[in-house]
Amino acid sequence: MKVFASAISAAFFVAATSAGAQQLAPSPTLDAIKARGHVECGVHLGLPGFSFANDKGEWTGLDVDYCRSLAAAVLGDATKVKFTPTSVQQRWAVLQSGQVDLLSRNTTITFSRNATLGVNFQGINFYEGQTFVVRTKAKVAAVKDLADATICVAAGSTEEKMAADWFRERNLKVTIINSQKNDDAISAYDQGRCDAYTAGIGALAGQRIKFKNPEEHQILSEIISNDPQGPVTRWGDERWQLIVRWVLNGTIAAEALGVTSKNVDEMKAKSTNSEVRRLLGVEGKFGEMMGISNDWMFNAIKQVGNYGESYERTVGMGSPLKLPRGANQLWTKGGLLFTPPFQ
Q1: What is the pLDDT of residues 110-139, one digit of tens each?
Q2: CA distances in angstroms from 334 to 132, 178, 227, 327, listed in the order given
């Protein structure tokens, strides 16, 4: 009876999977990408470690790597992506208008954004936490020491609201100076027009290296919020949302399963692990279910790498930012990063 029940369960799973794939509507976004031959990715105006263009126009960063992984999965080539820099204020309109296929630009996931802006968040690629950068000579030890200070912040950002809420709830007075662009807020702080600048700890690490004298500034270790960030798509087009979500999951799963850009060929040829084989397209038809090639994640990992490889070279110890993994470590190693199984 147990064998019979197992067989029925397996048959039901296969049937349900096939039915689900047949019911998934065509994707106008995917069709448009295939027709134009590249992914349009909305990124930050310029944040080292996440999305930053050098003087040759070459983009690098954690969010940029994700866009390249997506291009490799969808088109088989990680170079087939174009980057559109977006400000805090512009990003939603740029996405909603269809100018870009997704946003990958350190955007915090919040309820109100999901409920009112016509956007969906497709997972977490960075666990951020808001804090402050201050001048070392100010001898600020804790956030509460900023009472009566002036604080620079980008207008319309989650950091602007969180900072105002945090100090008000503790009956501490501060003056918040907002600027329409991140760079303007940072410049105001660097020029001494305010006592502190607030953003996520990862963003601050990237911004500090652009200061005139980085060694004269310190980032507080205390955080006042948890701000998970990840790729964003428009409402609708469930097939495209599925692809965006599972490419991110695939890069995380690859690290958890020990699949890297260096060993992916060998793993594809020799691994007996069923999940690895499904991830790399040896078993199952996971790519086909979404309307792309079954070697989608093999291409992404081969050309860009797994999540850990990307993290280390963009924001980790192999980068100028040298951010510890912290919450962005795999859950099996004490972090928060995990992915649903490839089953």
Answers
A1: 999 999 999 999 999 999 999 999 999 999
A2: 25, 36, 18, 8
* Closest by CA position to 106, among listed 61, 151, 73: 61
End-to-end distance of the chain based on CA atoms, in angstroms? 24
Single-letter amino acid, residue 139: K
The three-state secondary structure class of 177 is strand
Task: Supply 202's token pair.
Answer: 């990862």
Does residue 193 contact residue 143 with C-beta atoms inside 8 Å?
Answer: no
Residues in Cβ contact with 274 at an 8 Å cutoff, skipping those fewer than 6 apart: 283
Which token pair is 303?
A: 């050309």
Alpha helices in 136-190 (DSSP H): 158-169, 182-190
The rounded radius of gyration (Å) of the Cα atoms in the chain is: 22
Query: How many residues are given for the chain?
Result: 343
User: Can you tell me the distance from the alpha carbon of 113 to that of 29, in angstroms, rounded to the nearest whole number?
Assistant: 21
Return the structure tokens found at 100: 């870009």
What is the tens place of the pLDDT at every residue in 45-56? Answer: 988 999 999 989
Q: Which residue has the tokens 């089953």?
A: 343
Phi, psi angle pair for 21, to nearest 5°: -65, -40
Helix residue spans in 109-237 (DSSP H): 111-116, 158-169, 182-190, 201-208
Using the 8-state DSSP alphabet, how is residue 232 labeled? E
